[in-house]
Write a structure and sequence with these properties.
By secondary structure, the protein is of the alpha/beta class. It has 8 helices and 9 strands. It has 2 domains: 43 residues; 190 residues, Vaccinia Virus protein VP39 (Rossmann fold). Helix 1 packs antiparallel against helix 2.
């Protein structure tokens, strides 16, 4: 993207945030949902990946891979990870708050020959969406870390309600907001332990992503965004 186009996109994204915060929605739509809808309409999907993260591939295809079962992809976007899981035999439900993202995900799934279930709605309200568990694998690449602080506890309750004992949760979040982010994005290891530890989850791993593990918008994410990965397991009784 040329510099002038990037500046214009960032300006529009900033305007979208301001307008979304000020506007009231008769449908009860979250203000941050309107931000993401605006960015999709602009074609400014700088967070988008074309391949799944290496940690997910290890869980699915590694020597100690998880048994196939039901997977929940939160903030699934255009479906990269949902489609990958479905191709490897998982029963997948992808949830996203942006209809335009789900339209793209459905088209990609059809073209690939798989059929994940894509659900439009807020990850903090899974039960209201008809999303029921138990799920054995939960993936969140960039959903929780963009939620406003007052919505994060509701997110944890929502996710915990649809996961079974022994479930695996693979969570990614920026340790600090990336430059020019349209919304504040950040999630620390202390926050992960506080939010999820009290809801029946144990942190198995918490570490920065390897330098070459993931690319977003043609940039190594750890250099620009301090992306961290967390692997958690739901406690058994």
């Amino acid at each position: 993207m040329r510099c002038a186009a990037l500046v214009a996109a960032l300006s529009l994204a900033g305007a979208a945030v301001w307008l979304a915060r000020k506007a009231r929605s008769s449908s009860g739509e979250r203000w941050y949902a309107r931000v993401y809808r605006t960015l999709y309409r602009l074609g400014w999907r700088v967070w988008e990946r074309s391949v799944p993260p290496t940690d997910l591939v290890t869980l699915v295809e590694g020597t100690a891979s998880l048994p196939r079962g039901r997977a929940l992809d939160l903030g699934c976007g255009s479906g990269t990870d949902s489609i990958y899981l479905a191709k490897h035999g998982w029963d997948v439900t992808g949830v996203d708050i942006v209809p335009e993202a789900l339209d793209l995900a459905r088209r990609r799934a059809i073209a690939t020959g798989v059929a994940p279930r894509f659900v439009h709605g807020d990850a903090t309200r899974l039960s209201d969406l008809g999303v029921t568990g138990p799920f054995g694998l939960v993936l969140d690449f960039g959903c929780l870390h963009t939620l406003p602080p007052d919505q994060r506890a509701a997110y944890v309750r929502s996710v915990s309600a649809v996961t079974g004992q022994g479930a695996t949760f693979l969570l990614y979040g920026f340790a600090r907001p990336p430059m020019f982010a349209p919304m504040r994005a950040g999630l620390t290891a202390a926050e992960v332990s506080e939010l999820l530890g009290g809801s029946g989850w144990d942190v198995v791993r918490a570490e920065p992503v390897d330098r070459d593990a993931i690319r977003v918008a043609r940039v190594r994410v750890d250099r620009s965004f301090e992306l961290w990965r967390y692997q958690l397991v739901r406690r058994t009784a």
